[in-house]
Each structure stands twice: as structure tokens, then as C-alpha cells.
Amino acid sequence: MRKKFADGKGQGKGKGKHAKAKVAAKIFATAKKKRANPNPRSNDFYSKQARKENLPARSYYKLEQIDKRFSLIAKQQRILELGASPGAWTTFLSKKTQKWIAVTAVDIRPMPKLRTAPNKFIFLQKDVFLLTKEDLKGRYHGILSDMAADTIGIKETDSYRSYLLVMEVLSLVPNWLRPQGFVVLKYFEGAEMAELSKLMHKMFSKVTRFRPQATRGASYEIYLIGQGFRADLKE
Ligand SMILES: C[S@@+](CC[C@H](N)C(=O)[O-])C[C@H]1O[C@@H](n2cnc3c(N)ncnc32)[C@H](O)[C@@H]1O
Q1: I need a surface site. Which of 38, 101, 115, 162 has the fewest CB within 10 A?
Q2: Which one, of 185, 96, 80, lies nearest residue 139 by Cα?
Q3: The whole model's pTM is what?
């Protein structure tokens, strides 16, 4: 996979200076737009609804819709939540279980104070790649990842970075997920989809690709749901 990028394939190799300049211009334009307006106020249905209901973000509805379809979250579970700030998914976990849930949440960014926090709640401000076994104690019923690196607007690059995050989460599964446990993984769909699907089918008895209605129309974000972790599976 790394070789693909080392070769420059899919990043404009062979198209010469013109293609590279176009890519650079796109990166600069995206960065400039973000600098000018880092938190654009969205006015779509789910953003308005989230403001009306005093929720930290519209992503609340994505987990709500995932849970409605797959019935994953229940009282008394231990959940590892990766990419948890600003806390919309944590809020959903609390509300769904009337706070009867233990959540270890991780994000590189700080977590604002939550109106509805789980009864047992640990927040680690940390890069997922730096998690240690001291951070994660015991196995979890489910591992949720809504992690996304800042996108630069180039689909191949954004998707590849999202693939690296998904792979990092899958590497945590053998040590930290309970047998029959589940994962929810955000992924910007791209070239590595088939590879991810194959790997997940080895690890889980059921794998589903799901796009909640609350996902923005233009986004190529999907969620990979793995259920029934096969803890006894050997290489
Ligand atoms: C879409 S937001 C998550 C929204 C959150 N699930 C919610 O509902 O409020 C993606 C988050 O992933 C985090 N993130 C990205 N890369 C990460 C990494 N390597 N380690 C930890 N968090 C990361 C970002 O800081 C960002 O807060």
C-alpha cells in the first residue's frame, strides 16, 4: 500500500508538472478556505436539529441511525470510543443507556464539558497511534471510531489516511475487544475498500457497509460495521 504512494501512482505520476501544480493549488485553496472560516455554520436539516436539541454536533444522528439499524448499544456495556470530540457520540451513548455505560473516549483534540456524560467516563487526549496498554484496561463490548484526519479535498489522499486510521483501530481489536464484540469504523471510501472488507470478514462473522442518512450528500464517508468478533481465530 505504501509502495503505491512511493511510486506516486494515483497521485499524478506521469501527468507531469501541470498535474502536480493542480494538486498543490487544490491543497492551498482548501487550507485558505478553512483558515478564513474554520467552523462554517451549517444549515442543513441535521445541523439545525442538533442545535435545537443542544447536542454537541450533527454526528449524533449518524450513531443514532447506525444503532437503530444494528442494535449495538445497551446498558452496562464498556465502550472504547475513538475520535470522540466534541462529544456527540458520547452524548448518544449516555442518552441511549440513561448513562448506564462505561466509556473510554480518545481524541487528539480536547473534549468540551458534556451536558450528558456516561456514569463511568474516561477521556484521554491522545493520538490513537500512541495508545498504550496502561490506557486501555480490560476488553470492551464495542469499539467505535469516528476518527477522521483533516481532509485536504483530494479523494485518494483523504481516503488513504482514513484507511490508516481504520487499520490502526483493527490492530487494537485482538487485544481489546470481547469475543462476539462489535466495531463501527468511519472510512472515506477508496481504493483500499476491498482489502478492508476482506480483513474484516476474517475477523467478524458479519460485516456491513452502511451509510447513515445523516451523512452529508457530497461525502464519500461510510461506516464499516463488524459484528461477532471471532476472538479464537488464528492467522
Ligand atoms: C468527525 S470528528 C468526531 C466527532 C465525534 N464522533 C462526535 O460525535 O462528536 C473526528 C475526530 O477524530 C479525531 N482524530 C483524528 N485523528 C485522530 C487520531 N490519530 N487520534 C485520535 N483522534 C483523532 C479528530 O481530532 C476529530 O475530533
Answers
A1: 38
A2: 80
A3: 0.85
